[in-house]
Design goal:
23% strand, alpha+beta, five-stranded mixed sheet, 325 residues, MutS, DNA mismatch repair protein, domain I, single chain, 10 helices
Length: 325
Amino acid sequence: MTISVLMAEISVKLCIPREVDEIEQHWHKRITYSLVGGHMLSALYDFYDDVQSADGTSDNTVSMQHVLKRGEGLIAALDTCDVDSEKLIKLFVDTGYMLHKNNRFTYPLRTIANTDNISFLRGILPWERSSISGTGAYTVDFEDSSTTIERMFGIEEQNINNWFSNFMNNIRWQETDHMPQDVDFLNISGNAKNGYWQTRPPKQGITLCRSKGNGKKEYMILRLSDIIGKSVLPDWRIDNGEYYRIAIAIRISNENAPTVTVRLKNYTVELVTDFLLPSAEQNFFELYSWATSGDSRWRRTIAINLYPTFKRIFERLGYKISEVQ
């Protein structure tokens, strides 16, 4: 059996059709990425039985090395496959597709969230997956929902303006005459060519800054006027990329919302963002998408069935959506 025939058969099983204008090598890359992800998830069930603990997870666990070897074994067998199995493990852990238990991994309880005529699935047996986008499982066949995607993946339910209003109401300001030293300031202009941070502060208004140098950085909200107000942000507000939520809100308040360019095709949708999403939303986005080039976190492709859900999430975050042909 040739690789082309094998890829075609797998694509049917996982519902990953090829676009009319898609290069075969790119299509194969999407298929193998999804295949490796499912193969690694199947490793969680190597010691499967029907016994479950009180928290709904299996008492059986596997080591990280076992999951890695499962992924790397398939990667080695597919000569053109360049999947990073360690990054996949982190993504699975961040989205609850894999659970830590006593420093080992186990599979999650089966969970279903219905939205936009799609059932998003977690904890489904990997060999029973029928539709895949990226490495995330879904089905267009209705299944009884047990939660929402917001609760399932920790996605913020409020729109960004309401969230930012509540956030600012809880800020406790410390007033000072001096601008913080050795810090970079959020690039409110949003010009991606100039990066996310700049050395000069805006002239007035609310902004975000962070300490320079290596190691753990300190983040502060600044209120710039004749008297400067500052407030150091706690770790939970900024860790793992959560500070992007604050940065997005500040950009919107300065009438320069981030953008996402959308290209609709027959079976897929390509989305290109000019600013990363907050942690939970970004993880959800990456779980259900393929990198359009390299392992880009900004340029991603999703199954077209999922576009209404992602469009709603981007709109909730205040992104400007530009749909192009």
